[in-house]
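RETRY 2/3 - previous attempt timed out on the joint model. Re-submitting the same 512-residue input unchanged.
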Amino acid sequence: MLRVVDLAVGYGQEPVIEGVSLEVASGKFVSLVGPSGSGKTSILRAVSGLLKPVSGHVELNGASDSLGFLFQDDALLPWRTARENVALGLRIRKYSKDAAQTEADAWLARLGLDGFGARFPHELSGGQRKRVAIAQILALKPKLLLMDEPFASLDAIVRTRITQELLNWVEREHLSVLLVTHDLEEALTVSDTVYLLSQGPRARVLASYDVAIPRPRDIFASRKHTSFAPLLERLWHDMSDTMGSAEFEARR
Amino acid sequence: MSGYLKNIAVRRVLSLLVLVSVWEIMSRMGLINPFYAPAPSEVLRVVVSLFVEGTIFRHLEATFAAALAGLIIGLGLGIFLGFAAALISWVADVLEPIMLLLNAIPRVILAPLFVIWLGIEIPSKVALAVVLVAVLIFFAVYNGIKDVNQLLVDRVRTLGGGRMDLLREVYIPSVTAWVLGSLKVAVGFAFTGACVGEFVAATRGLGYLLQFAQSTYNAALTMGLIFLIMAFVLVLFFCAEAIERRLLRWRYRGSSEKTA
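RETRY 2/3 succeeded.
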């Protein structure tokens, strides 16, 4: 579905990431973890076309409109209602106003927001806004989902509930996902493969970990799987090592 | 405190009534020199006589015409130049220093120059109001576009939106919020331009009448005109606020129950 080959991305002179290669096979859930400043978000921005790579390339199997990007912030237009926000992508894709709004209402209902369509974003809770943002993306029926710590700002209960709902949806629709997260447990719970990035600048892929927990997954049951704890420990130690060596280099 | 006194509007009106009553009583008792501060009843009598005799109307017409024309032209010019500067870099290179200079100086000092160029009739007053309003609105639009939330731009782009989608969905609504936020100040600026222009040189207008009242040491007429101008600007101020609340209802509409 997606291949990132020898990617380098930078904002100034020094690249944030360099020589990064990774793959998201069709229907697979892949996570990127790494220390702060390791360029995880930059990889997603390069894949989505928001950022031009310095070198390397991104191969996307399918049209660019088969890609949906869920940001860390909900990024809803404050002057549009929930319904209009969900309909936005559909309107851009030349749906008629009525068709787009009907489709938007159906998506809001699917995400538990029936009756909230006429509200503006500031009239919704954080969890509700996040559901609107998810509806906005899923309404376009993407084949590949890019997610940049989309639920980090939510409280634990809402976060767990929305993560499980989205995971169910992804498994049912066989979507491919590239998730950026700081949370190692979350990464292992939802992913088929986890890539660990080194400390930036010039961050690169240090290792990848295959997660052998069967699907469909329940995010609580997954944590009790026999492979979960050893893999988490390995990932945690590898991550600590990369952060430790970076701190050591910084002091030197 | 009784129920209706908790209402802030009631408290404000009552405070004003108390202040005016004290002023009236002190004037009648001879504690205030009417040469400097005539009684409120005298000020009211002068204002009413201006309307009853009909002398005020030609002055009102001149001031309102200049202020409203200045407001409309200034809004149009400010929006056009703001968009041009934000979207075309060489226009910004040329306009930004001029606008910064015009913003830094008290722009009413241009009034005598406009009188020399455009004469003492309404066009010179309109020109001053235009300059006052256009500079304000230019920066509202220019900063509105420059400071647009980049996340919203990225959102529309990742949904497949092009330049026109960005303009329609992000830039225009964002700039509208900035412009409407400045509209109340712009109304005040437009009247400042008109009145100061009339103050400098004119044959009619509230500013002209004010200048006449001041030169004849007519404190009652001066105060009456000041209150009259304040009242008109206040009415327009509330109209501008009503327009802002209508067009920015997404910002003002109260939040209702929120659940997870």
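Chain B touches chain A through 24 residues (CB under 8 Å). Closing ticket.
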